[in-house]
Design a protein that fits this description.
mainly alpha, 170 residues
């Protein structure tokens, strides 16, 4: 029946045997090495992708670490600036306080000197007044008092004069 279709059975059988032999040889020689090579290549690609993912994660972690360090540095810088500002404010205040103390000391010293000079001027004026009074008294009575008696007389008159002035002021 195959003869009627133009197919020669022994030749068909030879083609089929040749096909399976060729298929077997190609499978052994080409297919297995090619699939092995493709599997190795797929493994290398997978390793490369895994390594790229690890590197990507490490880079992200490194960026976070750098950002954290930058933030810590910024905060530390702000703390240093704040501390320097507080220190400068404290030093300024100390300088102001020292200047106030020195000014008050100078004012107190000046007041003391003024009071002392005033007292000295007052004493000198009293002595001059006493000398003038003695001269006037000498001329009036034409007699000279000794210095000790004269000083006692002047002190008595001045005390009485000062007492009356103080009572008038009160």
């Amino acid at each position: 029946m195959l003869d009627k279709l133009g197919i020669d059975f022994p030749q068909l059988l030879a083609f089929i045997i040749n096909f399976f032999i060729l298929f077997g040889l190609l499978t052994l020689v080409l297919y297995k090495p090619i699939t092995k090579m493709l599997d190795q290549r797929a493994g290398k690609i997978k390793e490369g992708l895994d390594q790229a993912e690890r590197i990507k994660q490490e880079v992200a972690h490194a960026e976070e670490t750098v950002k954290a360090q930058i933030e810590a540095g910024r905060k530390e810088g702000q703390a240093i600036v704040a501390q320097a500002s507080q220190t400068s404010d404290r030093i300024k205040e100390e300088a102001r306080a020292e200047a106030r103390k020195e000014t008050e000391a100078l004012i107190a010293k000046a007041r003391a000197e003024i009071a002392m000079e005033r007292e000295e001027s007052f004493n000198q004026l009293r002595r001059e007044f006493a000398d003038l009074a003695v001269l006037a008294a000498e001329k009036v009575i034409e007699q000279s008092l000794d210095k000790k008696a004269h000083q006692q007389l002047i002190d008595k008159v001045l005390k009485e004069g000062l007492a009356s002035k103080k009572s008038e002021l009160n």
